[in-house]
């Protein structure tokens, strides 16, 4: 167990669908992140939340909408996605302090048809 | 943006041999470095980290070496086992974490 749980593990959706990805961390961390992992590319930071406040939006298209109701839960709402949005979406959390490692979940494999 | 590169996209080693995976970076202000292991179907798993005031750190069967002069980071795995087969990538701090693309390690039994 990683301490960071993501659901669903796999998701197939059409371009007109609306779906949500869920992340829950059991590590008592205060920061949570969404990353996109595409083949042959480095991890791309999407959003950062510190103590439920969004502190980073890395020029992500508005078809991705994050929500952080508390320090343990993070959502990524998806609507009107494109096929190029197909990727592995990873949630991570970290404790306070700049030099602390990220703890990742096992990701949601998203396929947009 | 920050440049983080892995020297080899793939690496094959014989079981029992030592593995060395390398990472080059461009930001001289980076002060914290991490190695992650990612197995198929799983998220990245923390292996070992090192701060810029150190040049070597050892864990269980793993050693991380940091050469700040040439901006080079390496991960050494001793007595490589089949369970070590995975993608390994480095991460370092800047305005955010920056990640390499990863080296896929295959262990030959």
Q: What this model shows, in words?
A:
The complex is a heterodimer of chains A (113) and B (109). Chain A has no helices and eleven strands. With 113 residues, chain A is mostly beta strands. By secondary structure, chain B is an all-beta fold. Chain B is 0% helix and 56% strand. The model of chain B has no long low-confidence stretch (mean pLDDT 92). At the A-B interface, strand 10 of A face strand 4, strand 5, strand 9 and strand 10 of B.
Main sheet of chain A, how many strands, which sense, barrel?
7 strands, mixed
Number of helix segments of chain A? 0
- End-to-end gap of chain B: 40 Å
Q: Strand pairing plus helix content of chain A: what structural class?
A: mainly beta
Biggest sheet character of chain B: 6 strands, mixed
Task: Report the strand count of chain A.
Answer: 11
Distance between the termini of chain A: 31 Å
Which band does the percent of strand residues of chain A land in?
Answer: over 45%
Helix content of chain B: under 10%
Q: For this entry, what is the oligomeric state of its chains?
A: heterodimer
Chain pair forming the biggest interface: A-B, 21 and 22 residues
Helix and strand run of chain B: EEEEEEEEEEE
Measured on Cα atoms, how large is the radius of gyration of chain B?
13 Å
